[in-house]
Write a structure and sequence with these properties.
162 residues; Alpha-Beta Plaits; four-stranded antiparallel beta sheet; 4 helices
């Protein structure tokens, strides 16, 4: 069987230890979490965990059932087959030697990014978008010499049925 990518949106009580129990559920079964993002919702007593993982279809069903059994989990929403808006924020530090600065700035402009820090030999660029946008951006910067990448991981929200 092949592994598929899954995007889960998990609403939980905003209490200490909840994230640890959820991560433990994955690690205890030998599953990797590809991306994880957590923040409070409009209700300060609740947080939303957005998680990306890869596994077999039968395994994701087991994972969702196990997540639903955890006391502080309110809802588990598998967005994978639904319509959703997904974004990720990254900061990329890239070499920007004098002869390549204009080219780096053109790429930044094309992708509607912004330079957030400038050094003698580098730019740090902030970019947000979906996975495809980030991959395309990084592929163009790679020849310049990427020094470092820091990323938030995916966040997502279901689209309304229109």
């Amino acid at each position: 069987m092949s592994c598929n990518k899954y995007l889960l949106s998990i609403l939980v009580d905003n209490e200490p230890g909840v994230l640890s129990r959820i991560a433990g559920l994955f690690s205890g079964r030998g599953f990797n979490i590809d991306s994880l993002s957590v923040a409070k919702t409009t209700d300060p007593g609740q947080s939303r965990i957005t998680m990306v993982t890869k596994c077999e279809p039968s395994i994701i069903e087991q994972i969702k059932k196990q997540l639903n059994k955890l006391i502080n989990v309110i809802t588990v929403n598998d967005l994978t087959e639904k319509r959703y808006v997904q974004r990720q924020l990254s900061m990329v530090k890239v070499h920007a030697h004098i002869d390549k600065r204009a080219e780096v700035l053109r790429i930044v402009d094309i992708f509607r990014c912004r330079v957030v820090d400038v050094g003698h030999e580098h730019y740090t660029v902030e970019i947000s978008g979906d996975d495809e946008k980030l991959e395309a951006f990084l592929s163009l910067l790679k020849p310049m010499g990427i020094i470092e990448i820091v990323s938030t991981g995916s966040i997502a929200v279901a689209r309304e049925n229109v």
